[in-house]
Amino acid sequence: MSFELDPNRTALVVIDIMKRVFSWESQPHPIQEVVSQTTRLVNAFRQAESFVVLVRVASVDGKDFLDPITDPLPSTLLPHALAEEPEDWSDILPALGSHPLDHLVTKHQWGAFFGTDLDLQLRRRNIDTIVLCGISTNIGVETTAREAYQHGYNQVFATDAMNAYSEEEHRHTCTYILPRMGRIRSTDEIVAAVSGKPEASHDQA
């Protein structure tokens, strides 16, 4: 089955590829590989003159972050810290570069739609399809995907440009959740499609 994307109706939405991603361990891909694949997607969408949205989570004092009462998480579900977070932890990774037409979304919870102008910016540009990638697969990416699904967008998931705290969490979302809301594709397939060179598709996690 051929896989095609209309660059005029498709946006790339990159979730939380910030400087903090190097301060804790994520799975199942080497973090530099996720960054590299994301950079390839960003560059391809820019070259196709498609809309690129870079999403980050940030706060001045932390008081606008959600803080519900929860049960303690098992240690296996907590990220493994590798280093102290830099002061500019919420900055988008420089490896992604920048372009004057990129749109920056600052969110204060897991999903990129709630409380932001993302839906407005997409609809004003007549975009009906979004390509999602980023960190983490089962939190920021999955929550944004669920919101996009409820807003009626078609979705494509670059699962080789995603990571989670654990491989189990990543695999669960890619196997049981994302296929209910869109199509699973590799970075290679997405780059080819947005560049006007569609290839035969296959699942990639």
From TrEMBL:
Sorted UniProt keywords: Hydrolase
Q: Which Gene3D superfamilies match?
A: Isochorismatase-like (3.40.50.850)
Checking InterPro entries in the record gives: Isochorismatase-like_dom, Isochorismatase-like_hydrls, Isochorismatase-like_sf
Q: Which Pfam families match?
A: Isochorismatase (PF00857)
Domain Isochorismatase-like: residue ranges = 10-189
Superkingdom per UniProt? Bacteria
Name the chain's protein: Isochorismatase family protein
Q: Name its species.
A: Ktedonobacter robiniae
Q: Which taxonomic lineage does the organism of this UniProt entry have?
A: Bacteria, Bacillati, Chloroflexota, Ktedonobacteria, Ktedonobacterales
